[in-house]
Amino acid sequence: MSQAVASLHELREFARGYRAPKELPARFDGRPYTRIPIHRDDRIEIVVICFSEGQTSSVHDHEGSNCVVRLVRGKILENLFTDAGDGTYHFERNHCLGAGDVSALDGKQVHQLINLDRRGSVLLNFYSPPFQMH
Hints:
The chain has 134 residues and is mainly β. Helices cover 7% and strands 44% of the residues. The strands form two sheets. The protein has a five-stranded antiparallel sheet, with helices on one face. A three-stranded antiparallel sheet has the order 5-4-7, with no helix packed on it.
């Protein structure tokens, strides 16, 4: 990734080839899920996301950051939405992610993640530019 912000294609390829540490710092103790940053520089941020049984994210975008989700273990339902422009979202489609699957969203796309695994799900999220939490 030679430029300051990775294109969605570059970020997807980086996420697919990323060699995660053997022992990811997984914790299942937060609501609505647990977020554990493991790397951040001026171009990319990598975060471990842990969903316990029954946990879900809000319907959200990534405020201009490209985002690639790579499921490490578990099963996730990803709902995709379109922004109606009036403060509401319209359901577009969904798909299930299993271990090793990757999903990529540009900074304007809207999604929701729902854990479907009783034992919990662990994801690696890759953001470029680094996601700004508010």
